[in-house]
Amino acid sequence: MYQQLAPFVTAAAIGLLIGIERERSNNPDGKRSILGARTLPLLALSGALMAFLDHDALMIIVSVFVGVLILASEFSWHREIGRFRVGGTSAVAAMLTYALGYLAQSDGRVAVVLTVLLFGFLSIKSRLHTFAQTGITRNEMSAALTFLISAFVILPLLPNHFVDPWQLIHPTRIWMLFVFVTGVEFCSYIALRKLGKSWGVLFSGLLGGAVSATVTTLTLARRIVEQPHSLLLISSGIVLAEVSSLLIQIIVLAVVAPDVFSEMYLYLAGPAVIGVASAVGISLFSRPDNSGAPVDISLANPISIRSALRFTLLISLALVVIALAARWLGPAGVYATSALGGVASLRAVTFSVSELSSAGTVSTTVAALAILIAMTTNMMMKLVIIFRAGRLKLFLVCALFFVLMLIGGFLIFFFNLFIGRVNVE
């Protein structure tokens, strides 16, 4: 008995939830739609009943009747515009409610999940309209289109194998990395543009670091000249920018080399955890009235044809150079090229050594140490930027916490080396 009634109860709950949301939403003329907390549960129950009876002819008749009823209830004459108008949102919501009631008979869990999604979209309808009209620019829409083409058109067409005799260039992996990283960067860019100025230094540092840690570091370092009393707060923002950069490297590692991810992610996650703890700790000692001060970090849109080509060429070049260094000079060559590459792009080094480690060209020990060396030179480059653009005190504070982050990474490396977790050869 319970098993037979459960789908009807689920359908009634689905209709009631959507109906209450629609009941609270007014039409443009101020009148409430009849598709509310009473009608929608009945529609959902009707759908569940049709699925239970499993009679094709009856289902077609009832479905047509429901469709006509929904359209008629939302069909009205508007004097202001001089024509008839159909309320689209409530009509579609009602039709989906009827379909979800039907689905509740066969798979109640899926019906509930879809109901939650529908309820979420209906609840944020006004915010979605506002965002579509004012929250995103035409250039950002073009960037979103470029991203979608990159992910769902170009990526499936690329060769899913190595295209060079040295087994180095794998187009699908390189482009997949571009899709993942730029997707994170673009979301961070939109969030930073919308919220960064109002949420202050810490939030701007965290999101800005995901787009460009170097530009974010430079912007925050210049700010210390105008706000010398915000030393600790700005330092925490710079540290969080570095944390975001390390999180991007973890994404790179997971995408490129999932088979060695479990052996290498701690060398990036450890410094990131120390960086978060440091940023939180030093921000507690900063002046709370300055934490929400507006910050304007000017970052370029991360998705464009030029950035895609630059990303692909940089990754491919780094992979070839580090691979050749590994074959000609051994581990010393990997460390030397990683140190130089870290100044230009930590991401390129992480991709290259992870790919080589996954292919067995270098050991996980060499790859992990190469990433730590590249991280060191990358932080040194940013300290030079801080010293030239900011103040000596800011340089010293950031240097202290950068050193702590590096110490954490190297301690994890040598601890794993000591207990034999990583291969020395």
How would you describe this protein?
It is built from 16 helices and 2 strands. It is an all-alpha fold and 425 residues long. It has a two-stranded antiparallel sheet with strand order 1-2. A hairpin with a 4-residue loop joins β1 (75-78) and β2. The model is unreliable at 288-292 (pLDDT under 50).
Write the layout of secondary structure elements.
Layout: H1 2-23, H2 39-53, H3 56-73, E1 75-78, E2 83-86, H4 88-106, H5 108-123, H6 125-135, H7 138-157, H8 171-226, H9 231-256, H10 261-264, H11 266-284, H12 305-329, H13 331-344, H14 346-359, H15 364-389, H16 392-418
Helix pairs in contact: 1-2, 1-4, 1-5, 2-3, 2-4, 3-4, 4-5, 7-8, 8-9, 8-15, 9-11, 9-14, 9-16, 11-16, 12-13, 12-14, 13-14, 13-15, 14-15, 15-16
Number of helices: 16
Helix content: over 70%
Distance between the termini: 66 Å
How would you classify the helix and strand content by structural class?
A: mainly alpha
The fraction of residues assigned to DSSP E strands is under 5%
The biggest beta sheet is recorded as: 2 strands, antiparallel
Radius of gyration, CA atoms, in whole angstroms: 28 Å
- Order of strands, main sheet, comes to 1-2
Instruction: Kindly state the number of beta strands.
Output: 2
Shape: elongated
